[in-house]
Write a structure and sequence with these properties.
With about 350 residues, the protein is α/β, with parallel strands linked by helices. The protein folds into 2 domains: about 270 residues, Vaccinia Virus protein VP39 (Rossmann fold, 3-Layer(aba) Sandwich), CATH 3.40.50.150; about 45 residues, no CATH class. Helix content is about 35%, strand content about 25%. The protein contains 13 helices and 15 strands. Strands 1, 2, 3, 4, 9, 13, 14 and 15 form an 8-stranded mixed sheet that branches. Helix 4 crosses helix 5. The N and C termini lie far apart (about 40 Å).
Length: about 350
């Protein structure tokens, strides 16, 4: 999975610009400017909760086309002190995507890095939207002799699945045919984020699709041109992702405070997305107003992105509850827009 996505010469993210209608998939920032705007305000509020430090590293992992950060910084201009304090850092390995990000953020000073470890120390605000799902997973299948790891073999000139000959050390319940996914790379990255937050102060916001509790299930998928395809059909030319196990991420970060995960729809409502949509519609043409309504539904409705996608925040111990999570912790079903717009 890592080779297919990240190989320096043949990797999917190294060679392609996969996001958007002309690509293979669409992310929330591409659905509507409202998403990035709310993330920008979340960052500004979090900065105030940190005590408004004179300098803060604003970091995005996997910035895509730069759309979310562009919208976030525009919205954050409403808090001049925050905007002046920001030192922008983008963690991106793809050359094509970096070039697009340069264009999207042409008026903004920014530094690009291959890894989070390259970002200089200092108070941190980190955003990771649809980043963890593309980090590699290991799959295990339950057989009559116990769990076996799924591996990749090569037969008749083609890649194909295979099972390890020896049993796995995995210990969990399951029936024959069940699949369980482990993602050490995700847990390691989460632990690194938590260590940075604990050491330097700040907050991180992780938004991705996945499940709140560890469970059996085969969620690994390949996508090209907005359609699912067999995993081994076109290695390096299709996106490979799997659902994020948020419970596992939480276990990887015991030294910090975790808020959530909560449903994306509830999180965006709590930040005031419905009020923002209404304001945009008041100055829109009828066609634009319909597009805004369609985008709003796609981001928050349960059958769209509202339930499958989750939001998880990381802060230092004892820090205030981040924006968007206050009422959700007690009554997620009753959350309403804050009307911040």
């Amino acid at each position: 999975m890592e080779i297919c996505l990240s190989d320096p010469e043949h990797g999917y993210y190294r060679r392609r610009e996969p996001i958007g209608a002309a690509g293979d998939f669409v992310t929330a920032p591409e659905v509507s400017q409202m998403f990035g705007e709310l993330i920008g305000l979340w960052c500004a509020v979090s900065w105030r909760q940190m005590g408004a430090p004179e300098r803060v590293n604003l970091v995005e992992l996997g910035p895509g086309r730069g759309t979310m950060m562009r919208d976030a910084l525009r919205a954050a201009a409403a808090e001049p002190g925050f905007r002046a304090a920001v030192s922008l850092h983008l963690v991106e390995t793809g050359d094509s995507l970096r070039e697009t990000q340069h264009q999207s953020l042409a008026d903004t000073a920014a530094a690009w890095h291959d890894t989070l470890a390259d970002v200089p120390p200092g108070p941190l605000l980190l955003i990771a939207n649809e980043f963890f799902d593309a980090l590699p997973v290991h799959q295990y299948e339950m057989t009559t002799e116990g769990w076996r790891e799924r591996l990749v073999s090569f037969e008749d000139g083609n890649c194909c699945p295979a099972l390890a000959e020896t049993p796995s050390a995995l210990r969990r319940p399951g029936e024959v045919g069940d699949v369980f996914e482990l993602a050490p790379a995700r847990n390691d990255y989460m632990a690194e984020i938590a260590a940075r937050v604990e050491r330097d102060g700040g907050a991180a916001l992780i938004i991705d699709y996945g499940h709140t509790e560890s469970a059996n299930g085969d969620t690994l998928q390949a996508v090209r041109a907005h359609k699912a395809q067999p995993l081994f059909a076109e290695p390096g030319l299709a996106d490979l992702t799997s659902h994020v196990d948020f419970a596992a991420l939480g276990r990887a970060a015991p030294a910090v405070s975790l808020h959530g995960p909560v449903r994306q729809g509830d999180f965006l409502r709590a930040l005031g997305i419905e009020a923002r949509a209404a304001k945009l519609q008041r100055s829109a043409t009828p066609e634009q107003a319909r597009d805004i309504e369609t985008a709003l539904h796609r981001l928050i409705e349960p059958r769209q992105m509202g339930d499958l996608f989750k939001a998880l925040a990381v802060t230092t111990k004892g820090a205030p509850v981040p924006a968007g999570f206050e009422r959700l912790a007690a009554a997620p079903e009753a959350s309403q827009g804050s009307g911040a717009w």
